UniProtKB/TrEMBL annotation:
<keyword id="KW-0479">Metal-binding</keyword>
<dbReference type="InterPro" id="IPR023358">
    <property type="entry name" value="Peptidase_M18_dom2"/>
</dbReference>
<comment type="similarity">
    <text>Belongs to the peptidase M18 family.</text>
</comment>
<dbReference type="GO" id="GO:0005737">
    <property type="term" value="C:cytoplasm"/>
</dbReference>
<keyword id="KW-0031">Aminopeptidase</keyword>
<keyword id="KW-0645">Protease</keyword>
<dbReference type="GO" id="GO:0004177">
    <property type="term" value="F:aminopeptidase activity"/>
</dbReference>
<feature type="transmembrane region" description="Helical">
    <location>
        <begin position="64"/>
        <end position="86"/>
    </location>
</feature>
<keyword id="KW-0862">Zinc</keyword>
<keyword id="KW-0482">Metalloprotease</keyword>
<protein>
    <recommendedName>
        <fullName>aspartyl aminopeptidase</fullName>
        <ecNumber>3.4.11.21</ecNumber>
    </recommendedName>
</protein>
<dbReference type="Pfam" id="PF02127">
    <property type="entry name" value="Peptidase_M18"/>
</dbReference>
<dbReference type="InterPro" id="IPR001948">
    <property type="entry name" value="Peptidase_M18"/>
</dbReference>
<dbReference type="GO" id="GO:0008237">
    <property type="term" value="F:metallopeptidase activity"/>
</dbReference>
<keyword id="KW-1133">Transmembrane helix</keyword>
<keyword id="KW-0472">Membrane</keyword>
<dbReference type="GO" id="GO:0006508">
    <property type="term" value="P:proteolysis"/>
</dbReference>
Length: 339
């Protein structure tokens, strides 16, 4: 019986590609870099938002741009005309994490710790007793006085959030394990300082002007099970759909017929876990700006033609929100509906 599913060998290959993608994407910034590299290898052209796009966009062209932790990629059908539709898949690049606060270093009872804040709604107890590290974006002053954004992913264990030993907790506390995000989630850093970031970036400590850093697990994603049929990874919500939507767009761009008359677009937004209301979130202008810029490049030069073409495109378009959902947990089946 045909299932519509790929052969097991193909599924395993896709799973291996997925976990490689996830492990290379500890932050939205890294996801955009990894996704951008995939697109460039597939023949996509990176656009700059401060440049004029009209001389660049052509029917049959493949393009993408990055804004902060958001990536938008699209393929223009060979027969596309102003007013035609946009077929869009939306996903998000961020996940619940612990982020370093701007004034992060502290000490207590001989231990160096760092101040963190909870970003999004996470299962914070799962962060305890793991070897953690740091990843993020750092603003560095260059030798010529300019500033550059550089990515950092320290791959060795740096931090740990230790549980309180059983001898100092009551049975009631163990049964209701509910860490206080302000006091109990402060990782022990060890005897290191900003020198770690400077060493990773090969720059002087004084050249580091700002950063946005998050904690990340050092344990790699794994494929497991009797037949290697299961997968465990961090940030599946929603790097899973960041990967699958990008891959689908690349395959479609290679296989689309000459009669393709629409724009296929993937929009991978940041800040979904905290409400999406930002310049790079789904609640911001980036989606409408992307459609408007592409549409206007193909609109006639007559007055109001670009605006009318965009309105026509809006009525002929659709957007799929691709997000993660929970399968039934066999140990907690009562949490799910039977039918």
């Amino acid at each position: 019986m045909a299932t519509g599913l790929p052969p097991m060998a193909t599924a395993h290959l896709l799973a291996e590609e997925l976990i490689t993608f996830i492990d290379a994407s500890p932050t939205p910034f890294h996801m955009c870099a990894k996704g951008g590299a995939m697109l460039l290898a597939a023949g996509f052209v990176e656009l700059v938002e401060t440049d004029a796009w009209r001389p660049l966009l052509k029917p049959g062209g493949k393009y993408f741009f990055v804004r902060g932790g958001t990536l938008v990629a699209f393929f223009i059908g060979a027969a596309f005309a102003a007013g035609n539709g946009f077929n869009i898949v939306g996903a998000h690049t961020d996940s619940p994490v612990l982020k370093l606060k701007p004034c992060s270093k502290k000490s207590a009872h001989g231990c160096i710790q760092i101040n963190v804040e909870a970003y999004g709604g996470g299962l914070w107890h799962t962060w305890f007793d793991r070897e953690l590290s740091l990843a993020g974006s750092v603003i560095v002053k260059e030798a010529d006085g300019s500033f550059a954004k550089k990515l950092v992913h320290v791959r060795r264990p740096l931090l740990r959030i230790p549980n309180l030993c059983i001898h100092l907790t009551s049975a009631d506390e163990r049964g209701k394990f509910a860490p206080n995000p302000e006091t109990h989630l402060q990782p022990i850093l060890g005897l290191i300082s900003e020198a770690v970031l400077a060493a990773e970036l090969d720059c002087e400590i004084g050249a580091i002007f700002d950063f946005e850093m998050t904690l990340c697990d050092t344990q790699p994603s794994q494929i497991w099970g009797l037949r290697s049929e299961l997968l465990s990874a961090p940030r599946l919500d929603n790097l899973l759909h960041c990967y699958t939507s990008l891959r689908a767009l690349m395959v479609h761009a290679d296989e689309a017929p000459p009669s393709a008359d629409d724009v296929c677009m993937v929009a991978l937004f940041d800040h979904e876990e905290v409400g999406s209301d930002s310049t790079t979130g789904a609640g911001g202008p980036i989606m409408s700006e992307s459609m408007q810029r592409v549409s206007s490049c193909f609109a006639p030069d007559e007055p109001h033609a670009a605006a009318e073409s965009l309105l026509m495109s809006n009525r002929r378009s659709f957007l799929i929100s691709a997000d993660a959902a929970h399968a039934v947990h066999p140990n907690y089946a009562e949490k799910h509906q039977v039918d």
